[in-house]
């Protein structure tokens, strides 16, 4: 499980995370919602140790990420796959090179095993035999799927999805939703999904957390989030301009 305790982070004197507390249980599909700029991507980067907090702790199965040595961090990161916001593919590299990037660096597998895994993961995301293509030849949805294939290369226990459906048409979005559900249910991956797409959130999630003004102001099940009277959460999930959330 993942335990986040009193996580705090400022950038250039501006507080972004002001004491985030959240627990994510194994096997769940945890949705994190919140407005643009509220710190969702920053929170995900803390979970995989890409960003160090100013204060607070994160534990992965009891091991502290936030104080881990480089060597321990390396070991902890193997439990994670991350689908970055915008997929983060290198345009100059082929699909194969993009998908294999992390594992080649880790030097965990030989080339034959890397090739086998690349083929397996591309097949899983519905893009078999696309190894030689360049990202410029792919649609937005295909790029996200290549990003997901990369995230799955190490058979992670946890996959972090940062805005997996943003910018995609509703049908392509739904294909991504189905892949997230498949990873969660068939592969037993714990999902952490940052999104403002509520259609996707309701479909793939079973636990919800809302980040607002640097803190988690709401946690609950899908049923609880649908029925909540919390004014900030209601305004967000209904996508209304009127309410306590101000337009900036
Ligand atoms: N490396 C950094 N250096 C300085 N400021 C940063 C850095 N990373 C994030 N920030 C700031 O932290 C705040 C939160 O950023 P973050 O990317 O987490 O937002 P977000 O909730 O993911 O937004 P969106 O929904 O638009 O993706 C922003 O004000 C951003 O400018
Ligand atoms: Mg973000």
In short:
With 248 residues, the protein is α/β, with parallel strands linked by helices. It has helices at 40-47, 70-77, 95-106, 111-124, 140-152, 170-185, 198-204, 222-227, 231-238, and strands at residues 2-11, 14-24, 29-33, 55-60, 63-64, 80-83, 158-162, 190-194, 207-212, 215-221.
Overview of this protein structure:
- It is a single chain.
- This protein has 248 residues and is α/β, with parallel strands linked by helices.
- It has a domain at 1-77 and 190-248: Rossmann fold.
- Helices cover 37% and strands 25% of the residues.
- The chain has a six-stranded mixed sheet with strand order 6-7-8-3-9-10, with helices on both faces. A four-stranded antiparallel sheet has the order 2-1-4-5, covered by helices on one side.
- Helix 3 (95-106) packs parallel to helix 5 (140-152).
- The longest helix has 16 residues, at 170-185.
- It is globular, with a radius of gyration of 18 Å.
- The structure holds adenosine-5'-triphosphate and magnesium ion.
- Magnesium ion is lined by residues 40-41, 85, 162.
């Amino acid at each position: 499980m993942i335990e986040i305790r009193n996580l705090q982070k400022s950038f250039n004197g501006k507080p972004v995370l002001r004491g985030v507390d959240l627990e994510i249980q194994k096997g769940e599909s945890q949705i994190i919602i919140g407005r643009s700029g509220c710190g969702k991507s920053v929170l995900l980067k803390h979970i995989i140790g890409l960003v160090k907090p100013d204060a607070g702790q994160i534990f992965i199965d009891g091991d502290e990420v936030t104080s881990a040595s480089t060597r321990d961090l390396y070991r902890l990161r193997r439990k994670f796959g991350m689908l970055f916001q915008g997929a983060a593919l290198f345009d100059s590299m082929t699909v194969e090179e993009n998908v294999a990037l992390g594992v080649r660096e880790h030097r965990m597998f030989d080339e034959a095993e890397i090739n086998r895994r690349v083929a397996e993961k591309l097949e899983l995301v519905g893009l078999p035999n696309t190894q030689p293509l360049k990202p410029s030849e792919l649609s937005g949805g295909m790029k996200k799927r290549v990003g997901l294939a990369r995230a799955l290369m190490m058979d992670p226990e946890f996959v972090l999805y940062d805005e997996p459906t943003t910018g995609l048409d509703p049908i392509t979005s739904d294909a991504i939703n189905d892949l997230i559900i498949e990873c969660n249910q068939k592969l037993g991956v714990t999902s952490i999904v940052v999104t403002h797409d509520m259609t996707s959130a309701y479909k793939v999630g079973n636990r919800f957390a809302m980040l607002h003004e640097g803190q988690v102001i709401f946690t609950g099940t899908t049923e609880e989030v649908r029925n909540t009277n919390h004014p900030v959460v209601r305004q967000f999930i209904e996508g209304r301009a009127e309410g306590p959330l101000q337009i900036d």
